[in-house]
Amino acid sequence: MFKMTSNIMRNLVVKKSTRRYPYEVREPFDKVRGELVNDIDRCIFCGTCAVKCPSQCIEVDKQTYKWIYDPFACVYCGVCVDICPAKSLFQKTQYRKPVGERLTISMQGKPRKKAKDKEAVKATEAPAAEPGGEPPPPETPSAPKE
Amino acid sequence: MRKTVIPFGPQHPVLPEPIHLKLTVEDERITEVIPALGYVHRGLERLADVRDFHQMIQVVERVCGICSVIHALCYCQGVEELMGVEVPPRAKFLRVMWSELHRIQSHLLWLGLFADSFGFESLFMQFWRVRERIMDISEATTGNRVIVSVNVVGGVRRNPDAEQLRWLLTQLDWVEEEVQRLETTMLEDYTVKKRTVGKGVLTTEKAYELGAVGPVLRASGVAQDTRQTGYAAYGELHFEPVVETDGDCYARSKVRFRETLASVDLIRRAINRLPDGEVRAKVKSKGNPQGETVNRVEQPRGELLYYLKGKGEKNLDRVRIRTPTFANIPPLLVMLPGLYLSDVPVVTLSIDPCISCTER
pTM of the prediction? Predict the structure, then answer.
């Protein structure tokens, strides 16, 4: 009859199994597939992510250099991050916070300069401009891929 | 005796998903059961027309969230067979590891829901507390908690290092210890036995005849488990199925309980024998899948079958999925007649119904 008693007594002395979630958040694990972020300055607008996405939540406009993403259609599978040739896409370890209304994220990029133009720019502009917006994660290489 | 027809479901406190059973009762005893399905049909098989065969992995994972790894594994095995891709041995062992982790979390989920179905809520909470640790392991090793999206055509996407596997093993020790602590309550408690022993008996002959699969079949004394066919790396792990002979609700919960511990053991053996090397074979040069194939794997609920047909195009011509709950509904209709109305929730839950799976 009292098979559960020892368990109940033990539960009185051990740590709680639950936490008060929105106020207490556990440390995320490394390499968790959380919020998807595009470092737009590094994006080459190749459109591979839009083609490979299983839920088709990414749109890339190659003419106007626009990257449009619907975070509520995204399934956080990380396929786009794996295949991104410029390594501009990455996922944070935190999940996206719940919000009251739908939104699409639209990012406007700049046309990518040709290799020789780039070197000319480098020579003229000594201090490299910091990319605004989201900071890059530690695991992605900091130098843009040539 | 006057007959009364009582609808059970589609919405019912014990049912996590909608199934409708039309119960004909005489006095308090059930005489006839007619099931009705189709409340959560999503048409996922049809999506093969618009998603290419790589994108279909994420689609088939959503057939059933609780056993997503195993759905994707079955699909990937089928596509690999069509394309002639040889999966690296390390990937095969990792697939076993993640499949078994999913089996543990599915069985713990079921054990909790089953305890809840006969009104033992504190036991339900205990099982789900243990399950949470498995979800954490999934999150740490694959990146996601439930739909882990780790299988790809040609192998797996993540390669856990030695340190992570050591951590996984220590977590599994904790899980095993906690599950064993609940063994006496789940299997020997007076009240639990009163609700489960002798309820919804399925004889060996009937189970075989009606094509029951998974724990329902094994609880009726048929030692049949698709893992015996040795897909992925099961062939090298000397797998033995868990069998009970009584065929009642108690036997089914015992099979699932023992399978949970057996899965912990399988993961340990898989990690101990984990070979080094690549985890993902190159598939780009193999072209598109062509031909047709049937693939079977063992889900937590039983045998899962995938029929795939490719015409050498990016999109598969046909994806046909037969899930275990579909096979377990006819046996359920045999179990219920003769029981009291109050036993219906317990017996219905004892087949571990996954209706979204069944209707796809």
Answer: 0.85
- Per-residue model confidence as pLDDT tens digits over A36-73: 888 888 888 888 888 888 888 888 888 888 888 888 88
pLDDT, tens digit, 9 for 90 and up, residues B231-276: 888 888 888 888 988 888 899 989 999 999 999 999 998 899 888 8
What is the domain count for chain B?
A: 1
Report phi then psi at B8, rounded to 5.
-115, 115
CATH number at residue B109: 1.10.645.10
**CATH classification of the domain holding A67:** 3.30.70.3270
Coil, helix or strand for B207?
helix
Domain hosting residue B242, numbered range: 3-359
Burial of B216 (0-12, 13-18, 19+ CB in 10 A): buried
Contact predicate A44/A22, CB 8 Å: no
Closest partner residue to A3 among B56, B157, B189, by Cβ? B189
Q: How many domains does chain A have?
A: 1
Q: Is residue A118 part of a domain?
A: yes
Judged by a CB distance cut-off of 8 A, whether residue A7 touches chain B is: yes
Q: What is the ipTM of this complex?
A: 0.74
CA atoms within 13 A on the CB side of B164: 16
Q: Is residue A74 part of a domain?
A: yes
Chain A CA closest to residue B136: A29
Tell me the angle at which helices B121-142 and B162-181 cross, rounded to the nearest 10 degrees.
170
- B132/A17 touch (CB, cutoff 8 Å), yes or no: yes
Is A11 part of a structural domain of the chain?
Answer: no
> In this structure, what DSSP letter does residue B231 have?
T
**Domain presence at residue A4:** no
Residues in chain B within 8 Å Cβ distance of A55: 58
Average pLDDT, chain B: 87
Check B149 against A77: CB less than 8 A apart. yes
> Which residues, in sequence order, are CB contacts of A18 under 8 Å at separation 6+?
none
- Compute the C-alpha angle B277/B279/B283, nearest 5°: 120
Give the model's confidence band at B170: pLDDT under 50 very low, under 70 low, under 90 confident, else very high: very high
A1 lies within 8 A of chain B by CB: yes
Average pLDDT over every residue of B194-213: 88
pLDDT reading at A135 higher than 70: no
Which residues of A fall within a CB distance of 8 Å from B188?
A: 3
For an interface test with B, the pick among A6, A77, A80, A95 (most B C-beta atoms closer than 10 Å) comes out as: A77
Domain limits at A40? 28-124
Q: What is the mean pLDDT of residues B134-147?
A: 88
CA B63/CA B70 separation, integer angstroms: 11
What CA–CA distance (Å, rounded) separates A34 from A26? 14
| Strand ranges (E), chain B | 3-8, 20-26, 29-36, 151-152, 155-156, 290-299, 302-311, 318-322
